[in-house]
Amino acid sequence: MKAKIVYASMTGNDEDMADILEEDLQDLGFETDSSEVAFADASEYLDSDLCIFVTYTYGEGTMTDEIADFYDQLKELDLSGKYFAVMGSGDKTYGEHFCENVFDYQKAFLACNATEITAPVTIENAPDDEAIEAIDQAAREMADKLNG
Ligand SMILES: Cc1cc2nc3c(=O)[nH]c(=O)nc-3n(C[C@H](O)[C@H](O)[C@H](O)COP(=O)(O)O)c2cc1C
């Protein structure tokens, strides 16, 4: 099974999440490919069974240019028959905007007819032990659904 991970990260927290997830998925037998959003094209998801987007949220309800561009590419795709998962790091002091871009992308994948494989994992700032366990658990769910 192939998993494509695309991540957006300014200060490294989401890159750390993507790295943890990629290592988990490799341990669980997936063939993985991971790209930073600025160097990825959403059409690369078409070669994967599992499409993953890991993102920060900056800017209270808006998207940075790099994730807005990727979002526009994603919206053009038909991902019928593929699974997806979204996750990301934010900060709860932003209230209703906590991890908002994670949920924006969840809606976009659903609009592309992809099937959500596991609930979004949202964490605060850098991944701590609890966050790592949540990512590990999500990876196990992905493996159970795709290999089980
Ligand atoms: C200017 C600024 C705006 C932010 N806006 C939000 C926000 O709207 N919602 C949120 O959950 N976190 C917000 N954050 C927190 C970041 O998303 C959080 O620090 C995240 O871990 C950064 O991920 P990165 O290290 O991958 O860039 C903001 C941080 C900064 C500095």
TrEMBL record:
Pfam families, per database record: Flavodoxin_1
Molecular functions (GO terms): FMN binding; oxidoreductase activity, acting on NAD(P)H
Domain (Flavodoxin-like) ranges: 3-143
Co-factor(s): FMN
Keywords: Electron transport, Flavoprotein, FMN, Transport
InterPro entries per the UniProt record, alphabetical: Flavdoxin-like, Flavodoxin, Flavodoxin/NO_synth, Flavoprotein-like_sf
PANTHER family xrefs: FLAVODOXIN 1 (PTHR42809:SF1), FLAVODOXIN 2 (PTHR42809)
Annotated family: Belongs to the flavodoxin family.
Function: Low-potential electron donor to a number of redox enzymes.
UniProt protein name: Flavodoxin
